[in-house]
Structure formats: structure tokens, C-alpha cells
Amino acid sequence: MVGILITHWHSDHIEGASALLKACHNAKLYCSIALLKKEAFQLTALYKKDIFADTDKEIREFREIIEFLRETGDRNRFAPVKSRHTFFDYRNTVSTRLVALSPSDVAVTQSIASLTQLAEKQGKRRARNIVPTSENLNAVALHFSFGNLSVLLGSDLEETGNPQTGWSAIFKDQIINELSLPVASLFKVSHHGSETGYHDKIWQELLIESPLSMTTPYTRSSLPTADNINKLQRLSSQFLITRDPQANKRIKRENMVERELRSIVKDRKTINDKMGHIQIRITIDGNLNISGNENAFKFTSTAL
Ligand SMILES: [Zn+2]
After folding, report:
1. Does residue 147 belong to any structural domain of this protein?
2. How many structural domains does the chain have?
């Protein structure tokens, strides 16, 4: 089975997906069932390509995908996902299974409803981000097992307090019992380690005590914060991050330059151009082999 999964429709998760799809001829494209409804297609049709507008790029990326699949006439490459979806379940030699824990039915319905509200308003300036942050409730979180090892991949699934969406829905809908999901020892922490990505029950019911945790930073929202990191470090045996989220401190300039900049710019952020990655390999007897490039970061220590 070869597949590409778009966990949800935000640029930090969808960018590059169309190029990937074009390059991987045999790969199926998996995404939330909400994105395969006519409301999502209509929205993409409303936004025209505009190479000068660095605004609605997540919509353009999705439009690129739809157009490509329409041109190739290969609609079967689209595969809709919602909670309980089984990507594969092999029981022969080493049992290997991948299932989706989200989005819940209610999250899908809400997402479709919100997409209809997003039509471009005549004469209005384009917003920087068209797809609403609530799309995170439509994110696909995953549970993967390989022999005795289980892994929880949290994507950007968040918690809002609504029992029918986000992490709450997974626990309310009894998905863990129903699918007999073993506790995971490896956790891709949801939503870049943010407080809204946290739920007590993730740590109580889905994970072993002190799992190995990791995440990626999200610079635009300064995630994870120092508090988030402290908490995750406390809960985990190790906490790994693809690059240090605090490394992009503002560059100190001469006073005169600094004053001038302050008078013309409301807010400034230094772009962190360091690309980090973490690679985890599992041996057939279940041992983990962790490595990363020079930008990956292990908390309590320095580079990996
Ligand atoms: Zn994200």
C-alpha cells in the first residue's frame, strides 16, 4: 500500500502535497472526508491562481490537487478518511495496523458548514489565512501498530471542550475499546505541543507512562512555548523537536536602525530557516533507532 495522507487543510501540512502526488504515481491520496465534499471543491473554484498573492496558498495547493486528479481522470486516487478508518491491517508475520482516530462525524459536518462561509467577499482584501483554525478539529490523528510497538500520531487535532469533536470525541466514542488499541510508547505530540492540543486522557489512556514524545515547532504561533515544553518534558521519557523553537530570537541591530525599523513595522519575526528532521526506525524485535539532523533538538540536552 502506498499512500499520502493530508492530515488537514493548513499550509504547514498541505504545502507540497500536489507535487508529491504527481511524483508518486501509485500513491493514493488520503484526506478528511470533509475535503471531498462539493463545498470544498466549490471553495477552491472560487479562488483563482494569483502568483503575487501569498495569501490563499493552502486553497491553491488543494485546487492544484483536484485539477490534477480531474485531468488524469483518476478520481479513485482520492480516499476519504474519518474516525475508525482502517488504512491497513496485516495479521500475517508481524501484525501491522494503521487506523484513524479522527475526525469525528460532528467535526466533519462542522467543517463542511464552515467551508460554505468562506466564499471570497467582493472588494474585500484577501485574508492571509482563508482556511479557519477550526479546521484542526477536522484533522486526522492516527494509531499505528507494528508488532508490540504502538505509535500515536496526533497531527494538529485540538481540544475545544466540545465532547463531540477534537480529542474528547475519541474518548466519548469509545474508539480505543472498540478497535482494541494498545497503548502507544511513541507520541507525535498534537498541534505543535500547544495547550489546546493537550488532553489528560491522551496520556492516561492512549500512551504508556513516560512515552517518547516529539513534535515540530510552528513559528507563526510561537509553538511550543516554554511552558508547553516543560510540561511535555515532565510527561515524557524524552521530548524531541525537529528544531529549537526558541532559536529564532530577534537579531540585535544598531540603535538607529532599530529605532527606524520600530517606527515603520508593527511586528517583526525572524524567519528560522533551519530545517530539522527526526527519523525513528523500528527493528523487527521492536527496538527504536532514533536519529536526527543537526537542527533536531532533544530537551534537557543539546543536539541529538
Ligand atoms: Zn500545524
Report:
1. no
2. 1
Asked if residue 229 is part of any domain, the answer here is yes
In the reported structure, the alpha carbon of residue 93 is separated from the centroid of ligand 1 by a whole-number distance in angstroms of 35
Whole-angstrom Cα distance, residue 198 to residue 145? Answer: 22
Cα 213 to ligand 1 centroid, rounded to whole Å: 16
Tell me, in angstroms, the distance from the centre of ligand 1 to residue 155's CA. Answer: 7
- Grid cell, residue 102, equals 479522527
Cis omega before residue 80 (within 30°)? no
Strand partners, 88: 98
Let me know if residue 302 belongs to a domain: yes
* Structural domain for 272, as ranges: 211-304
Residue 163 lies inside a defined structural domain of this protein: no
First vs last C-alpha separation in the chain: 32
Residue-wise pLDDT tens for the chain (304 aa)? 789 999 998 888 888 999 999 999 889 999 998 888 877 777 777 765 555 555 567 788 888 888 888 888 887 888 999 999 999 999 988 899 999 999 999 999 988 888 777 665 555 555 555 677 778 888 999 999 998 899 999 999 999 889 999 999 999 999 999 999 999 999 999 999 999 999 999 999 999 999 999 999 987 788 999 999 999 999 999 999 998 877 656 677 888 888 888 888 877 776 667 788 999 998 877 788 899 888 888 876 444 5
